[in-house]
Design a protein that fits this description.
heterodimer; A: alpha/beta; 6-stranded mixed sheet; 10 helices; globular; B: two-stranded antiparallel ribbon; 11 helices; 4 strands
């Protein structure tokens, strides 16, 4: 479904991604894990067209999207829940969801209902200004907003960031609900333990390159991973 | 008492023009985070085009005004595309200097095309004045039309921004360009649309301004431009109701200062009020400061 082939990405002179290649197949949950600054977010930003690679190729559903303008990608079935949520704080919950469905002419009511089934709390707060929501609710809104575009591939950047453990559990179980409903998931996480639990496959990034890859279960057992990310 | 009301009406009328100009500043600032100092000069171009349409092409006034609006809308898109778009990722200072450059470019182009001799703007608003209180108070036709235009613009713009899909996209882009792009919003196009609307409004403001003060020279737009910018900051830059409120307050303060304190000092008083307001409330009267949750 998504194929990233040997991409090199730079921030000015800084070589941020050094020849990264990975694949996401339809129906999978794939996790990218790694420490701060390993290049996880940069990888997602490059796939979603916020940044472009200097060399290498990205294909999504057999179409070359390496240099496609980012705003054209949601219509092709790619959605991203960005790092730090980045919901529209001055707009209402409903308006945020409408923005999520921007590529559709007029989103049907069922789409909103679908989001509210996953996140009942958003329904109560539908006409509230998003900036007044709690951190967890904002994360839910960011996920609901991405869901509104009916993505084929949903990319989540650090969905657990800054949330209480109980909320992290909730968010991860919702990611699995999305997956069960037929959405392919690409997950970037620092919380390697949680990510590996739900991932079919995972890649470990280290200073801009892929250091390890394997199934979620394999990597969870790997000594190197345990030492580096799981604290023993 | 009648004098006071009469001054108040003149102030609201002048303020309405400032408000319409200020809307252009505030919308562009809100979305592109830049101060488009050339905005004032678009007003002047709009007024000249309307003037030419009536005097040289003998167009009916309504057609001439429409022509001015269309021409300024196009001018806004061209200015944005040629001068500002290439600088999208440049430092703010570079964009600011460019805007000042565009302002001089427009003024000097106007000087070349229309020369420096003042043109007398034809009176196109033929509405009869209204007499109240047994003729003690007269409200001019231009005054009425100006205030009315301002109300119509305000209502339409507010509805557009809050209801329409493009309007919502504009708010989304103004808050977070990257997130807007992730929603599939074409950020560059949205910014162009904002410039187009702002510049179209500038043409309306130009016609209204020159109907009230019918002397047209290439620097006609400069001072009202600066004052409207002040009005936008006064009301809280980035806020549409703020631009409206700021514009009208500024107009009223200016006229009152002229009538009751000193004609020479009126501008100084206007800017002194701005300084005081910003000292007390740095974000302007209706400006909001949103803090982000982590």
């Amino acid at each position: 479904m998504l194929k990233v082939d040997n991409i090199n990405v730079y921030y000015g002179a800084i070589h941020a991604l050094k020849g990264i290649s990975f694949e996401v197949n339809e129906g999978e949950i794939v996790a990218l894990i790694g420490a701060n600054g390993a290049g996880k977010s940069t990888t997602l930003k490059t796939v979603s067209g916020i940044m472009h690679p200097r060399t290498g190729k990205i294909t999504f559903l057999d179409e070359d999207i390496t240099h496609t303008d980012g705003y054209k990608l949601p219509a092709k079935g790619l959605a991203q829940v960005p790092e730090g949520r980045r919901i529209f704080l001055q707009m209402t919950v409903m308006e945020n969801l409408e923005m999520g469905a921007f590529v559709q002419k007029k989103p049907p009511q069922e789409d909103f209902e679908n989001v509210f089934t996953h996140f009942p709390r958003l329904k109560e707060r539908r006409s509230q200004i998003a900036g007044t929501l709690s951190g967890g609710e904002q994360q839910m809104l960011a996920m609901g907003r991405a869901l509104m575009s009916h993505p084929k591939l949903l990319m989540l950047d650090e969905p657990s960031m800054g949330l209480a453990p109980i909320l992290v559990e909730e968010i991860f179980s919702i990611i699995q609900e999305f997956h069960a409903a037929g959405t392919t998931i690409l997950l970037v996480e620092q919380n390697a333990e949680m990510a590996l639990q739900i991932a079919d496959r995972a890649y470990v990034l280290e200073s801009g390159a892929i250091a390890l890859s394997g199934t979620g279960a394999e990597l969870a057992q790997s000594d190197a991973i345990k030492k580096a990310y799981l604290g023993g | 008492m009648i004098g006071l009301i009469s001054n108040l009406i003149s102030g609201v009328s002048l303020g309405s023009v400032y408000a319409i100009i200020a809307l252009g500043y505030t919308m562009v600032y809100g979305i592109a985070k830049m101060l488009n100092f050339a905005h004032g000069d678009v007003i002047m171009v709009g007024a000249y085009i309307c003037f030419c349409g009536i005097n040289y092409l003998s167009l009916p006034p309504v057609v001439a005004v429409l022509l001015a609006i269309i021409a300024c809308t196009a001018l806004g898109i061209v200015i944005e595309g040629l001068a500002y778009k290439p600088l999208r990722s440049a430092p703010n200072l570079a964009v600011l200097i460019t805007a000042i450059g565009v302002s001089y470019f427009l003024q000097n182009s106007a000087l070349l095309i229309w020369k420096s001799d003042p043109k007398v703007f034809p009176s196109i608003i033929k509405l009869e004045p209204i007499h109240c209180f047994d003729g003690q108070l007269t409200i001019g036709g231009v005054t009425l039309v100006t205030v009315l235009c301002c109300i119509v613009v305000m209502v339409c713009l507010t509805l557009f921004i809050s209801r329409s899909k493009t309007g919502k996209a504009m708010r989304a882009v103004s808050e977070d360009k990257v997130a807007a792009q992730l929603m599939g919003i074409n950020v560059n196009r949205t910014i162009s649309v904002t410039f187009a609307i702002g510049s179209g409004l500038a043409a309306v403001a130009g016609v209204l301004l020159c109907s009230a003060y019918p002397t047209l020279i290439p620097t006609t737009g400069a001072m009202p431009g600066i004052k409207a910018f002040t009005a936008a900051v006064f009301g809280g830059i980035g806020s549409i109701p703020g631009a409206m409120l700021g514009g009208i307050l500024l107009g009223v303060i200016e006229i009152f200062a002229k009538a009751y304190i000193s004609t020479q000092f009126s501008d100084a008083i206007v800017f002194a009020v701005l300084i005081v307001v910003l000292l007390i409330k740095p974000t302007g009267i209706l400006g909001k400061k949103i803090s982000e949750k982590v």
